[in-house]
Amino acid sequence: MPDLSSRSGHSASAPAPDGLCLLTVHAHPDDEASKGAPTLARYHAEGVRTVLVCCTGGEEGDLQNPSLREPGQPFHGLSPEEEKALLAEVRPGELARSADIIGFDEVVMLGYRDSGMKDSPANQHPDCFHMAPLDEAVGRLVAIIRRERPQVIITYGDDQRGYPHPDHVKVHDISGPAFDRAGDPEWYPELGEPWQPLKLYYTVWSKARLVAVHEGMLRHRGESPYDKDWLDRPGHDERITTKVEVGAYLWARSGALRAHATQVDPSEPWWFGLTDEQLAEVYPWEDWILARSLVGEPAPGVIEHDLFAGVRAAHEVHS
After folding, report:
1. What is the number of other CB atoms lying within 10 angstroms of the CB of residue 221?
2. Hey, what's the torsion of the CAs at 227, 165, 191, 289, to 10 degrees?
3. C-alpha pair distances (Å), 162 with each of 134, 146, 170, 233
4. 49 to each of 106, 152, 201, 297, how far by Cα in Å?
5. I need a surface site. Which of 180, 196, 205, 270 has the fewest CB within 10 A?
6. Where are the domains positioned within the chain?
7. Tens digit of pLDDT per residue, the chain (319 long)?
8. Cβ contacts of residue 25 below 8 Å, gap of 6+?
9. Distance (Å, rounded) from C-alpha 299 to C-alpha 277?
10. Which of 209, 296, 305, 251 is nearest to 33 (CA)?
């Protein structure tokens, strides 16, 4: 089992035994910025320990910000091979800056190589996440869970048809088993004392949010990047169980996205078509799907507003 203590300049101190902890699992550097950054920033501000597990280094990413190829910029005049090498060099620093903005207390790299897009040659690289044996990859995540002791884990959903990147699929595939095995002393006894998380959530971009942002852009900008194909895509809104109010924390999303300068074009309306204030006006929530709970579930038709609903009461009993 590899050393999983590699962190991006964040504290290596262990959490208090009775402290609340939220752990989120992402595939690549920049995913933590686009999926849930305001929610994590809010919980960090409220005193919850927040931990990011990043499964790969994003080695197969492409330069998404064309302004960095202009004269005087770091990617000017580089060959495709040189560009790829420089990307791999700078992306860890971008991740560290993003994590600092969001406020993660801990960043842990799971240690795999980016698998690239589906059916690309990178899928067959022996060190890529896609090729990792399931039990091995689950074990790496279990080791982190047992050390960090989160009550709540965030991961990717079970329906990846919208963006079936092999690494996103693998994040989902390891998270459920890790949730179960972390508390089972029969699994990986060499990886520390068992710890059972209590809730597992899936990230989701709701159709309601898409429509609200689209209409907000039309109102504020007169145009929107969301065309009919986007608006006609099926959503998962009927599965949403939880809406977290994050209107005051949207700066975490925009700031963290900009920290990934190679991956995010700051002029792209997809990301920045609305200011933080405008987005807070049109859709001040982040949506989540409760996939597993050992502390009860909301009644049918009832929406949670706290990822730690049910956990806090149990925490107070044992504190």
Report:
1. 13
2. 30
3. 23, 32, 15, 9
4. 8, 11, 17, 23
5. 270
6. 21-206+238-318
7. 444 534 443 443 444 435 999 999 999 999 999 999 999 999 999 999 999 999 999 999 999 999 999 999 999 999 999 999 999 999 999 999 999 999 999 999 999 999 988 889 989 999 999 999 999 999 999 999 999 999 999 999 998 777 889 999 999 999 999 999 999 999 999 999 999 999 999 999 999 999 999 999 999 999 999 999 889 988 899 999 999 999 999 999 999 999 999 999 999 999 999 999 999 999 999 999 999 999 999 999 999 999 999 998 776 645 4
8. 53, 55, 141, 153, 154, 155, 156, 171, 174, 175
9. 33
10. 251
Query: Which distant-in-sequence residues (6+ apart) come within 8 Å of 203 by Cβ?
Result: 35, 36, 154, 155, 156, 157, 288
Rounded to whole angstroms, the Cα distance separating 259 from 290 reads 29
Compute CA 272 distance to the chain's CA centroid, rounded to the nearest angstrom.
19
First to last CA, the chain: 33
CATH of 21-206+238-318, one of 3.40.50.10320, 3.40.228.10, 3.40.1160.10, 3.90.190.20: 3.40.50.10320
Question: What does the block give as tokens for 197?
Answer: 């998380």
97, amino acid identity: R
